[in-house]
Design brief:
With 305 residues, the protein is α+β, with helices and mostly antiparallel strands. It contains ten helices and eleven strands. The chain folds into two domains: 157 residues, Winged helix-like DNA-binding domain superfamily/Winged helix DNA-binding domain (Arc Repressor Mutant, subunit A); 139 residues.
């Protein structure tokens, strides 16, 4: 961008990105053809205005690209168009193509009332020569920063959306619903057998009243949570992945506590089987998170997710 003698802003021509290959995260974009690849595998082609927006953002990683700058890039000054709506549509298409989201951005971050910023490092390959575009951006408060953390550090703990395979909507719905039904079964059966659970806890621990109260409270909290997640899954609530990822820090301790539920049946199934079942249940909360991330990573295959 620049200004003329009258003080009006004019667009400064950008370097030709059509012969460049952009690499970011697991993705690679051909700036000329719009061909997008993820981990070497072809993805739907990016075309038209979304391609122009993406190549412009990739050429300025870490910088705030204003909406006015993008307007001048996409439309001539004398064009009359609802460019706010059109620009929002183009950015949403890009996020769908990259499995990104405005709430937890890994690539395209929205800067309120200003514009957008590409927050992942970008490698540009032109005529066989490779360089990193710009400098590594400094993450702002509230932004998702996993994209600028080395992959060996990110993958040490929790999976990211890019690490997971695509999955059909039906598979995600079925598995996630099955998990919610399992937890509902735990809660309802435990509440139905309170007269049997209380003496069992008295034999197992020194202060059974505290544990009994914890079991009762968590079951009463867990039932509406599971009913919400189950109904949202069945009816294909579009915002479920984002909502669940926000709930995950609160759901995790609840699920880890109920991973001990098999020990309520230790007299019937034995200590060994109770330990094995508990070990499996300790992983279930993280499998729920992975399913929701798989619902985000490819919205077209995941349907309403």
């Amino acid at each position: 961008m620049g200004s003329n003698m009258m003080g009006e802003q004019v667009a400064v021509p950008e370097p030709n990105n059509q012969k460049s290959i952009f690499r970011f995260g697991l993705y690679e974009l051909d700036g000329g053809t719009g061909e997008l690849r993820k981990d070497g595998k072809p993805r739907p082609r990016v075309q038209g205005q979304p391609l122009e927006v993406l190549t412009h953002l990739l050429a300025h990683p870490g910088d705030v690209v204003t909406r006015e700058e993008l307007r001048l890039l996409l439309w001539p000054a004398d064009t009359f168009v609802d460019y706010d709506h059109s620009l929002n549509t183009a950015v949403n298409k890009l996020r769908d193509a990259l499995g990104d989201s405005a709430e937890n951005p890994r690539f395209i971050q929205t800067i309120p009332r200003r514009g957008y910023r590409f927050i992942a490092p970008v490698e540009v390959v032109t005529n066989g020569a490779s360089r990193f575009a710009g400098s590594e951006p400094e993450p702002s408060f509230g932004a998702e920063t996993s994209a600028i953390v080395p992959s060996e550090i990110r993958n040490f703990a929790l999976s990211e959306a890019d690490d997971l395979p695509d999955a059909p909507r039906g598979v995600i719905q079925f598995l996630f619903s099955l998990i919610q039904v399992m937890y509902l079964f735990f809660y309802v059966i435990s509440l139905a057998l309170l007269n049997w659970v209380e003496p069992l806890l008295s034999q197992a621990v020194q202060h059974p009243k505290w544990l009994f109260a914890l079991l009762l409270v968590t079951a009463l909290i867990g039932i509406p949570v599971r009913l919400y997640l189950l109904s949202a899954t069945i009816f294909g609530y579009r915002g479920l992945p984002v909502k669940f990822l926000r709930l995950f820090p609160f759901v995790l301790p609840l699920d880890e506590l109920w991973a001990l539920a098999p020990f309520l049946l230790v007299d019937q199934i034995g200590v060994g089987l109770a330990l094995a079942a508990t070990a499996a249940l300790l992983y279930v909360p993280f499998s729920q998170r992975s399913l929701m991330l798989m619902g985000k990573v490819n919205p077209k295959r995941a349907g309403n997710f």
